[in-house]
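Entry 12.
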Amino acid sequence: KIKYRDLFESASDIVLAVGSQGEIIDINRRAEELTGFTRQELLEMNVLRDLTVAEDRDRIRQVIANLIKGLRQVYEVRWRTKDGTILLFEGSSSARMTKEGKFLCTRCILRDITERKKAEKALKESEVLLREAQRVSHVGSWVLNVVTGKLSWSDETYRIYGFKPQEFVPTYEKFSSIVHPDDNKFVQEEINSA
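Predicted 3D structure (tokens):
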């Protein structure tokens, strides 16, 4: 039991047990670190009412209902911390049942994915800007993995060469066949210097 408690308390993710109405039964130290609430404050809270942002509550009620039915759940949920910051978590939960199959509580692991999601959003925005810049300036780009030989083209490169992405899979050989003969030597030198 001591080993499991140590594992529970030292986990890098929030680990908690939640009752059928959303009441917190047990929660680890990581929750204190991420939310700013003390363990005692958290144990007096309800995940739905006190932590989950209003827009996510109905969905999380459904997650709990599915858990009570014995279905494992993977989901995203936003919690409001003590200072008002919103954190986004990826949750993985299962139900703990009695031998008779009666629901006891849910066991949840919540991984903070706030920064990952921000980075993904920023990357998508950058990709949109790059595509638009290439479209407006009529400049395409391509990447060749010299180890695997895989060639990737930007949308504008497809347009410049008159192909549709869903109709043409670029390969080095195909690319070489459509590059102007005067440019083949330059392209090959650039690839060799990579």
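Annotation: Strands lie at 14-18, 24-27, 73-80, 86-97, 103-112, 142-144, 151-153. Residues 66 and 88 are 21 Å apart (CA to CA).
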